[in-house]
Amino acid sequence: MNKQAHESAAIVAKTRPAAYKVGIILGSGLGSLATEVEDCKRIAYSELSGFPVSSVTAHASELVLGRLEGVEVAILSGRAHYYESGNSSIMRTPLETLKALGCEIIIATNAAGSLREHIAPGSAMLITDHINWSGLNPLIGEMDESRFTDMSRAYDPELQEAMRKAAKTAGVELPEGVYMWFSGPSFETPAEIRMAQTLGADAVGMSTVPEVILARFLGLKVAAFSTITNMGAGLQTHDLSHDETKEIAPKGASKIKAVLKAFLKDLSV
Ligand code: HPA
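Above: inputs. Below: predicted complex with hypoxanthine.
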């Protein structure tokens, strides 16, 4: 564990000691997921060591600690993206801290553009796999053999099954798909979107993939969701904007929240 993660875990242990089980990363427009946490303590990233404060509006940049449906959770409310700094391993210390706190499961969320008609804006999508289109990797420079991290089951099959069950329990329609990472911060071109469709992607976005690679490297199990905020460039008549992302994200987010709560409730018994 790196020194900063060690220091941050010590701050958490002092502020709210608990046997944390699930780490959750909240993406754009998903902050409301953190509002229902019970017995809650919040720590600003600026008070922790190695936690990057996000420059993106709609990202809170605080660690939210507490219980959700009886499960001890540590929520990264706000993430830093590769495009903010040019550093693809920017989320390494937060993830190492979650591991140090005892989390074995990481649930990542993001806002994404859809490439498929049946996954409309306002949907929640379960991510079943990803395509790393960025050419980047947060493990570049890692010196030992563990850098050759297996990604065959990056999105844990058992967790996927549990999420399908949770969606059924919650009465939420949960389409599934492959998420493709573009670095951003500009949106894709229509030609890039057509390419992504041809290559087998179902949604595109600017985050999550580096975190999933890091989480697998750290031996954490991963599940991930997108809140679909728009159709990809060229698939809708109006231009893309971050304002649209922020406006539409809460629709899918409330579905993700319902699925997550059903999942955690099941986990707690
Ligand atoms: N592309 C990339 N990232 C996104 C999009 C998109 O269309 N929508 C929300 N985040």
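The beta strands are 22-26, 38-44, 62-68, 71-77, 105-114, 124-132, 176-181, 203-205, 221-231.
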